[in-house]
Amino acid sequence: MTSTKLTICFDLDGTLVNSAPDLFAALDHALHSKGYEKSSHSEIRPIIGQGAKAMIKRALNLKDVQLNDTEIDELWHILIEHYTIHSADQTHPFEGTVKALEELQSEGHTLTVCTNKTIDLTLPLLEKLDLTKHFQAITG
């Protein structure tokens, strides 16, 4: 019997790792730095995705705040600066993720990551979480 070897591509945030707490913290930091109140995490969780700028805009929309592109860019830089340092403070692989990756590797499958997070944020995060070793390719 021949076993088919697969190439399996995973998303990162919300699939392999629970990064929401560190994303919330970076968003809170950026908003607070400009005098905006923090949002409740239950309000923000549904708006995570499609990148940091979209998350900032959505969080401000919840507060009925409209900013121009320059102001959004400024908040984005503050968020990214904070997140770069703190990306793995609370982020962790979901339960069973590491075991599943190990089992798939042991079966000879090729594992990859494709995320909308920039590669300069993705690689350090995967390294901090000791996950890089599981993937043949990582794109962001």
Describe the model.
- The protein is mostly helical and 140 residues long.
- It has helices at 20-33, 41-44, 52-62, 69-86, 97-106, 119-128; strands at 7-10, 17-18, 92-93, 110-114, 137-139.
- The strands form 2 sheets. Strands 1-4-5 form a 3-stranded parallel beta sheet, with helices on one face. A two-stranded antiparallel ribbon has the order 2-3.
Task: Fill in the keyword field for this structure.
about 140 residues
Set down the secondary structure blueprint.
Elements: E1 7-10, E2 17-18, H1 20-33, H2 41-44, H3 52-62, H4 69-86, E3 92-93, H5 97-106, E4 110-114, H6 119-128, E5 137-139
Parallel strand pairs: 1-4, 4-5
Antiparallel strand pairs: 2-3
Helix pairs in contact: 1-4, 3-4
Estimated structural class = mainly alpha
Could you state the order of secondary-structure elements as H and E?
Answer: EEHHHHEHEHE
- Counting DSSP E segments of at least 2 residues, the number of strands comes to 5
Approximate shape: elongated
| Rg over CA atoms | 17 Å
| Mean pLDDT over the full residue set | 93
The largest sheet is: 3 strands, parallel
Bin the strand percentage. 5-15%
DSSP helix fraction = 40-55%
